[in-house]
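Progress against Task 2.4 (sequence-to-structure conversion) is shown through the following example record, which the project officer requested during the mid-term review.
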Amino acid sequence: MAVEAKVTFCRICEATCGLVATVEDGELARLRPDPDHPLSSGYACPKGIAMTEVQNDPDRVLRPLKRTGGPGEFEPVSWEEAMADIGGRMRGVIERSGKDSIAWYIGNPSAFSYSHALWVKGFLDGLGTPHYYGAGSQDVNNRFAASAMLYGNPVIVPIPDVERTEFLLMIGANPLVSHGSLITAPRIKDHLSAIESRGGRVLVVDPRRTETAGRFEHVPVNPDSDAWLMLSLIHTVFEEGLADRDFLLRHADGAAELEALSAGFPPEDTEGRTGIEAERVRAIARDFCAADGAAAYGRTGSCLGRFGTLVAFLIDALNAVTGNIDRPGGAVFGAPSVALDEVGEKIGLTTYGKRRSRVGDFPDVLGTMPASLLPEEIATPGEGQVRALFVSAGNPVLSVPDGDAMERSCEDLDLMVSLDFYVNETNQHADYVLPTTTFLERDDVPIALLSFHAKPFIQSTEAVVPPRGEAREEWEIVEDLAREAGIEAASAPALRLLGKVGVRLSPKRLLDVLIRTGADGDLFGLRRGGLSLAKLAKHPHGIVLKNNIPTGVLGKKVRHSGGRLALAPEEIVTEIARLGSVNGGDPRFPLRLIGLRELRSHNSWMHNAPLLMRGGREQPLRIHPDDAAELGIEDGISASVASKHGELTVPVRVTDEMTPGAVALPHGWGHRGGWKTANKAGGVNVNVLAGSAPEDLERLAGMALLNGIPVRVSPVAPAAAEAEREAASASA
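Structure tokens generated for the chain above:
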């Protein structure tokens, strides 16, 4: 038996922890943490280790599948048969309805491949269709929209300088479970603990006492009230003379306007909204300003409410008015070896508002439109009506609001094709499921994450094992689809032109060019000691490029005139004005529902790994004891959770980790696809409670409203609850 140990890294979440794979006779036998990785230092979470079970899963799709009957009824076919039929049907759609009738939805795992998203975008640009959708509209697009307004480029996103900060203010972030998002810092618990060890503070604002909030300092807040809180913090900074006027004078426009806007939000007026006492808000603002380096940082919990883009903007605005942008210990701009802001500008990828959606008139964010609109885009007749849909590494039936509408719309398409390694709740409706590789079966450099490293770093990996069965990399499939459509799958016009004359750059060759011409590259031999893929191959555990992120780069980063921050763009002024028109809520739905992350889950795609499902997995609704007592709900019983969009029956956990008035339910459950272990896990699709109509989306980025959903909770009679469970079991 041939046994090898191969160094690689995880590509499930943004931490990208180091792994060592044991390969026996060409097949993956096990994964373990890499003790020699300079950042993760022998740590990996259960999800990374469980990739062995995903890699070798008997439910994995290993040959192209053609639908032969109802949803989920497939038979294996050859690649040649599949591509010939898909190509013919795609050309028929184009002939009947035009190239702009073709759409693509791309899931979260695509962000962890340097070729997947780039080739998909090239395919769509080659067609000239605007129908590009992704998981970002359920996760992060408002962060990019805010950056477009504040800095002039959507992918210029500062990160907290956790290596040096003395005060980290986290809004709606739970990095002890997520391992960090829009920041790449393996062993992030150690980073946060180190802040306290050097005399600093980590303060977590969240409606739930999350795993992170329970370990550090917790400030409970009412769901979906972050905009009022941030404006009150900024108000205090200005009112009490704490603003860094020198920084604002040198680096920002609109400071006076922001000061005037925040004047209408003193903490004494907003404490009814936020649930945080006015004096505590003022104390936080004072301590933030007094710290020798402070950073405000928000993630998913702050992104998914009615004013998500405004909140993302105000988080950075707080950093700016206190002089904590581009400062050691503050919010700093990463130092990547490949600068996506610059590369993206050159090839036209860093867009915001360049296009508007056909339904709802929403701006694009990095070329993508709101995924919540897909059912209406499929159903609404007229020019540009979606008739063919490709889905890669995604499961929008479980990830977008109103999955039932998404399922129905899939059945109305002329063609639906999925690129995936599972049959899931979405692609069971596809005409074809085309098998793709796992991240262990391809080379990689995490290009999209390099600018988020708290310590500048780069690592490359070759494939650990060859593709199982007939699986292919996504970019290869996209190239075949482009050939069938008679176009070039390249994101840059120059590359498409080269393709037309027979010159094609493979993703790996393009990657090497980007690294060698980047900030740390060898410039093809002109810079001694510089980086190339060949050099990275000699450092399998990766290379730490600098101990800290350099500062003093703000003028080079900001794209607005004069390199100055825009603190009062028109869209933000309008959103602040809109806060005043928000009513107190619907008395029929007195509670607010939030989401939560689980350590052994990653959205919807890792529930088929037995290692992660050990001990039974329950997904109860968490509710505060005071709310439970008022409603007559006891721990362990079933309850109905209803919104104006839908209703679910779930088990209940009564816990004081919740803030009164808030309830929480995890996402990604309710399986009934082709994965047996996941189907047995039970649970519900929480996004049934969210709305997908244009009026239900956040206006500036088209984000789904998945946090702060108004709901009503009521106990369910035991007989009714049992009937619900039996019905759910039967459908699985």
